[in-house]
């Protein structure tokens, strides 16, 4: 039997997810939730709609939730679904702050239900091929991403304080963790906004991360760089003791071609459904994913303060804020029982 899901969010990204659901025989759309009921009806004609994800799930007998709401809504929507016993597949970021992401990790533990974050670039088979190549380079010393494009989205992205770092760079940061098989230790970051930018916040960034094992990861990017666009995946270079691997972000890296199969959000959806059938934790499980969001928050903090920032300081501060803000007693008690945040995220 297909997995019956309720999707929260019927905007542009929501429509992309609805197409992925429609194309996956292992998943069946039970309902759509959006504060704009007309948008929900237009996105999925003939499907039950509503404004509350738990109510629609109960009414339709849905077994899981796909959260494609705006980042500020990720925490309340996902927390409500988990509390109702519904596993969740959420669009990145897990939440709009690391503190709220930690709260959701604890809520997942309390509910005993999967919360998986869809870092869609993790499911690019060409990225997996690059990782295999990098693994053959011996000890890795350096990885870099260049990302330069000039999209005009309109809407909330153009009003964000740090649109490039918060909405886009998390893809590259998460991919860097995957490629280097390492986690962030410290970051030094600067952001700025050119005079011609149509974004309210800083649309350009340069960040250098120290990673566990000693490698450095460097990110250079802009969302207001007209001309000579890079791939949406960025361009990559990885250097180790036995050589260098590079990737233009689009074409196949050297080596055997990727096996056919779903990619991007379709692959994330497939992995979520399989994880619920098998009980095997997928890539993007909330505990594994938090450090990618911590890289973003640490980079923003470094730019704001004008100095390097330790990732562990960001995690500790987020943990304190999560304990202060959490209203659910069971979730708060679970957070309080964590002996050390980074260690717990590796559970």
TrEMBL record:
Ranges of residues in domain Gfo/Idh/MocA-like oxidoreductase N-terminal: 4-117
The GO molecular function terms of this record are: nucleotide binding; oxidoreductase activity
Query: Which residue ranges does the record assign to the GFO/IDH/MocA-like oxidoreductase domain?
Result: 161-245
InterPro entries linked: Gfo/Idh/MocA-like_OxRdtase_N, Gfo/Idh/MocA_oxidoreduct, GFO_IDH_MocA-like_dom, NAD(P)-bd_dom_sf
Q: Where is this region: Disordered?
A: 241-264
State the Pfam families in the record: GFO_IDH_MocA (PF01408), GFO_IDH_MocA_C3 (PF22725)
Enumerate the UniProt keywords alphabetically.
Oxidoreductase
Q: Which family does it belong to?
A: Belongs to the Gfo/Idh/MocA family.
Protein's name according to its UniProt entry = Putative dehydrogenase
């Amino acid at each position: 039997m297909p997995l019956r899901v309720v999707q929260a969010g019927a905007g542009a990204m929501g429509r992309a997810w609805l197409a992925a659901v429609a194309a996956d025989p292992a998943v069946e759309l039970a309902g759509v939730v959006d504060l704009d009921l007309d948008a929900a009806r237009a996105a999925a004609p003939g499907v039950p709609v509503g404004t509350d994800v738990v109510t629609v799930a109960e009414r339709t007998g849905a077994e899981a939730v796909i959260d494609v709401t705006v980042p500020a809504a990720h925490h309340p929507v996902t927390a409500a679904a988990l509390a109702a016993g519904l596993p969740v597949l959420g669009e990145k970021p897990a939440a709009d702050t690391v503190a709220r992401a930690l709260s959701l990790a604890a809520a997942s533990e309390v509910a005993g239900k999967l919360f998986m974050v869809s870092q869609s670039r993790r499911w690019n088979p060409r990225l997996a091929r690059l990782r295999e190549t990098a693994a053959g380079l011996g000890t890795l010393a350096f990885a870099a991403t260049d990302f330069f494009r000039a999209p005009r989205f309109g809407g909330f992205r153009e009003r964000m304080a740090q649109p490039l770092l918060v909405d886009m760079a998390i893809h590259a940061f998460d991919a860097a963790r995957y490629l280097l098989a390492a986690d962030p230790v410290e970051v030094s970051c600067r952001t700025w906004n050119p005079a011609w930018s149509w974004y309210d916040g800083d649309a350009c960034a340069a960040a250098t991360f120290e990673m566990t094992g000693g490698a450095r990861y460097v990110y250079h990017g802009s969302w207001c760089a007209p001309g000579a666009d890079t791939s949406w995946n960025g361009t990559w270079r990885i250097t180790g003791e036995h050589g260098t691997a590079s990737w233009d972000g689009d074409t196949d890296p050297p080596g055997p071609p990727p096996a056919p199969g779903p990619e991007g959000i379709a692959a994330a959806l497939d992995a979520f459904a399989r994880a619920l059938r098998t009980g095997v934790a997928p890539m993007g499980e909330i505990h594994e994913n938090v450090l990618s969001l911590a890289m973003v928050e640490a980079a923003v903090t470094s730019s704001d303060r004008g100095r390097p920032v330790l990732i562990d300081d960001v995690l500790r501060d987020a943990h304190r804020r999560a304990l202060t803000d959490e209203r659910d007693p069971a979730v708060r008690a679970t957070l309080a029982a964590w002996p050390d945040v980074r260690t717990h995220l590796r559970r």
